[in-house]
Design brief:
The complex is a heterodimer of chains A (about 500) and B (about 325). With about 500 residues, chain A is of the alpha/beta class. Chain A contains 17 helices and 20 strands. In chain A, α4 crosses α5 and α14 runs parallel beside α15. The relative contact order of chain B is 0.18. Chain B has a single domain, classed as ABC transporter involved in vitamin B12 uptake, BtuC (Orthogonal Bundle). The chains are: A alpha/beta (about 500), B mainly alpha (about 325).
């Protein structure tokens, strides 16, 4: 069922508009069998529109789609599947309530239009598909109970079962650990060798460079760069995506002389999760905390925010020992925490910029009578808009009217408006494109300069290298290594992690 | 522990408690009585089960049932159809039920109205239409075949104690329908599509399953089952009262939820629903034997519904915790 060696999958001059706005303005891209092609671009650059056109969800306004020699002006979803085009969406499109076996076999049943479904047949289809890509997952367990990495592999197995010849993978590594990414890349490489054309959509430039052979970069619906991966440097890809030079070198803001220590952890221990953790955060300091999933990094961050039980050790704030047994207590002591998905998903898009900014701190703006003064809110909102340089003509416009980078500033403003002394950000840039990431890091630098201290819990080593004064690596619940200032480098941290 | 196991335990414990208070509980006559009162409810419950698995909720089924049953009788009389025939009114009711289910399907699949609101609205419409256009008066002289069917017993004898023991012939067709629905849900593409829909609308659409088509089939089937339930209700009661059945949605939905169907969609079994219906009937019919006034019945069933949903929420949060522990443990073991 797999493609012949020379098979080509391409689009020519694809134009697609949505209500006047051009999503794609004459895009051409070509992928051959046995090739992993990178499709890069910021949010809103037209990547997903292109995927939807090639998988038959949208019909292009004009242009030509060529799949292994057959030409189409547009595709239906069924046609796309018949021609071997498969998409693995970011959410995998799997059904949590069914078993692994059913998730793999159900699409095959639909494709074969089989009205009746046998349990044995289902298991057979699933076992074969997983065997095909060399993965071992318990097919009888409910999908709900499998890890994200397994879900990714299950989605791939499902696609191969449907005779995949061209496979789109939409940001497949977002939630994976290094180890899982490695396994995924092995499977991808194996598919490639068997003649599948793979289009890999990702923001992570180091990963793109590792797995992809060729690349197309989209910006504002146009191809701005394309060619062999080996011809591009990381910086050139980032520049192409954003249209401007992005500083990726280390710029940690200057620390004041003898900065005041804000928070001090002493031998903090929680049974089975972290053990004997001691470090301190000073005014204006940015500390990075990294480690593999399950290393205890999230639990440690939650413990400092009073959300995770502590068995031994102490936390001092401003030199005084405190008991942080609830988020309220932590907030009262001046410690803020933003969990992983909040920064990237935390906007009410149709509400005004102003309302979004004050949404988190509402509680503290209450008067004695429980009422909230609109004037006061407007003042707070406006001050953040100028402080974070959010570009808008009118603060009561909906957030959706802002560009991606400015939206990101609104999200941060929202959390910063509670004005903690120490802000813990967990995975602040997960799933964020290069441009927005730059904005976030810039704001963190700004705030640190103004005296706020940060603890960044992150997987993204380059980002930690760019901004941190100190990086702590946690392994099996213990701080295994501490990098300070010029000791901080990507290679050193990766080495410590693996 | 599985939901079904919990329910079986609850049934056993409740039976022992009642049995210890009143010896007549453990008689064949009483068992058959519970079965008899469960037939109609089970049919309704099977329709509701399918709707709930698909992620929806239906509150129009009691009205659909009585609309179909009452209208079938009215049609029989108005057009002087053969009163000796059992088949004609049953087919009529099923057709009417399916049509009303079709109206639900148009509202839900066609216009995309949320299921609770759609069925709440259609329930009002159906009820109004029935009372104004079909009739609002109580009919006691239902067609002869329907009337006689109420006493069509498969087994009938007098026990040693002198009570009449009767098992209605409906036990056979109801069992067949129940098994059929179970097979449809577990072994057909339609059945699995229902579960898929409950697991997520968008992934289901991307699988190539027609969401609207599946929803349409679901509400047509639920309508047909409600229609059948309605006419059987009329037959067993030996009267057609358009004001009946209203309010019975509480019992049925409670039974389906206690039977393990997730109110969020995606989960539920026919076996669990059968147990749920039996349990609710056990409670309703026997609270009196425990000295609890019958006016407390509704409160008791309502409390069971709330308890059932609470248990679901608790087990869901446990499952989430386990999943978290599991996915992190996996990484550890790989190191």
């Amino acid at each position: 069922m797999l493609a012949t060696q020379t098979a080509e999958y391409s689009v020519r001059n694809i134009v697609k508009s949505f209500g006047g706005a051009k999503a794609l303005a004459g895009v051409s891209m070509s992928v051959s069998a046995e090739e992993v092609h990178c499709l890069a671009g910021e949010n809103g650059s037209g990547k997903s529109t292109l995927i939807k056109i090639m998988s038959g969800v949208h019909a292009p306004d004009s242009g030509l789609i060529t799949l292994a020699g057959k030409e189409f002006t547009h595709l239906s979803p069924r046609q796309a599947v018949n021609e071997g085009v498969q998409v693995i969406f970011q959410d995998f499109s799997l059904l949590p309530n069914l078993t692994v076996a059913e998730n793999i076999a159900l699409p095959t049943n639909i494709l074969n239009s089989s009205r009746f479904i046998g349990k044995k047949e289902t298991k057979k289809i699933a076992e074969e598909a997983l065997g095909h890509i060399g993965v071992d997952i318990d097919i009888n367990s409910p999908l709900l109970e499998t890890s994200i990495a397994s879900k990714q592999l299950i989605a791939i197995a499902r696609a191969t079962n449907l005779g995949v010849q061209m496979l789109f993978m939409d940001e497949p590594t977002t939630a994976l650990t290094r180890k899982e990414v490695k396994k995924l890349f092995e499977v991808v490489d194996q598919l490639r060798k068997r003649g599948v054309a793979i289009v890999f959509v990702s923001h992570k430039i180091d990963e793109i460079q590792e797995i992809c052979n060729t690349i197309t970069v989209l910006r504002n619906g146009e191809v701005v760069a394309e060619g062999l991966m080996s011809d591009f440097k990381a910086k050139e890809i980032a520049t192409a995506m954003t249209g401007s030079e992005i500083a990726t070198s280390r710029i940690a803001p200057l620390l004041g002389k003898n900065p005041r220590t804000l928070v001090e952890l002493e031998k903090l221990t929680s049974k089975n999760t972290f053990d004997d953790v001691s470090f301190s955060i000073s005014e204006g300091e940015i500390i990075g905390l990294t480690g593999l999933l399950g290393s205890g990094r999230t639990e440690l961050a939650e413990a400092i925010f009073g959300q995770y039980p502590v068995d031994a050790g102490s936390i001092k704030v401003d030199g005084k020992e405190v008991t942080l047994n609830s988020p309220e207590a932590a907030l009262a002591s001046g410690i803020g925490y933003v969990p992983p998905d909040r920064l990237t998903q935390g906007l009410f898009l149709e509400q005004s910029i102003l309302r979004n900014i004050v949404a988190v701190g509402l509680d503290r703006q209450r008067s004695r009578w429980g009422s909230i003064s609109k004037k006061k809110l407007a003042k707070i909102g406006s001050s953040w808009i100028s402080e974070l340089r959010i570009k808008t003509k009118n603060p009561s416009n909906p957030v959706s009217s802002l560009s991606g980078g400015n939206q990101q500033r609104v999200v941060l403003a929202k959390w910063l408006s509670i004005n903690p002394k120490v802000m813990i950000l967990n995975g602040p840039t997960v799933g964020v494109d290069v441009g927005s990431k730059r904005e976030i890091l810039e704001i963190i630098r700004d705030r640190a300069q103004a005296g706020m201290a940060f603890l960044l819990v992150s997987d993204d080593i380059p980002e930690l290298v760019q901004i941190c004064h100190k990086v702590l690596v946690i392994r099996h619940g213990k701080i295994s290594k501490e990098f300070i200032d010029n000791q901080i480098s990507e290679s050193a941290i990766y080495k410590e992690l693996n | 522990m599985r939901n079904e196991t919990v329910l079986i335990l609850a049934i056993v414990i409740f039976s022992l408690v009642i049995g210890s208070k009143s010896p007549e509980f453990f008689t064949l006559a009483n068992l058959f009585d519970i079965l008899r009162s469960s037939f109609v409810q089970l049919l309704f419950a099977l329709g509701v089960l399918i709707v709930i698995i698909s992620g929806g909720i239906d509150v129009s089924f009691p009205i659909v049932g009585i609309f179909a049953g009452y209208t079938a009788v009215v049609i029989m009389q108005k057009f002087e159809l053969d009163g000796e025939s059992l088949l004609i009114p049953i087919v009529l009711a099923i057709v009417i039920g399916t049509l009303l289910g079709g109206v639900n399907a148009i509202a839900i699949a066609g216009f995309g109205i949320p299921t609770l609101i759609a069925t709440l609205g259609t329930a009002g419409i159906f009820r109004g239409l029935m009372l104004t256009l079909i009739g609002s008066s109580f009919i006691s002289d239902i067609p002869i075949a329907l009337d006689q069917f109420s006493t069509a017993d498969l087994v009938k004898f007098e026990s040693a104690a002198g009570t009449l023991v009767r098992l209605h012939v409906l036990v056979i067709p109801i069992t067949i329908i129940t098994i059929l629905i179970s097979l449809i849900l577990s072994r057909t593409l339609f059945g699995r599509s229902v579960y898929a829909l409950g697991g997520g609308v968008e992934p289901t659409r991307r699988l190539g399953i027609s969401v609207k088509g599946t929803q349409t089939k679901i509400y047509l089937l639920a309508g047909a089952l409600s229609g059948l339930a309605g006419i059987l209700y009329v037959s067993l009661q030996r009267k057609a009262n358009p004001y009946d059945l209203a309010g019975s949605e509480l019992d049925i939905i409670a039974a389906v939820v206690l039977g393990g169907a997730s109110i969020m969609g995606g989960y539920g079994t026919v076996f669990g629903t059968v147990l749920g219906v039996l349990f609710i009937n056990l409670i309703k019919n026997n609270l009196v034997l425990l000295g609890v006034s019958s006016s407390w019945q509704r409160a008791a069933v309502g409390a069971l519904l709330v308890i059932g949903i609470t248990l679901q929420a608790i087990s869901e949060s446990r499952r989430n915790k386990r999943r978290r522990a599991l996915s992190e443990g996996e990484v550890d073991s790989n190191e």
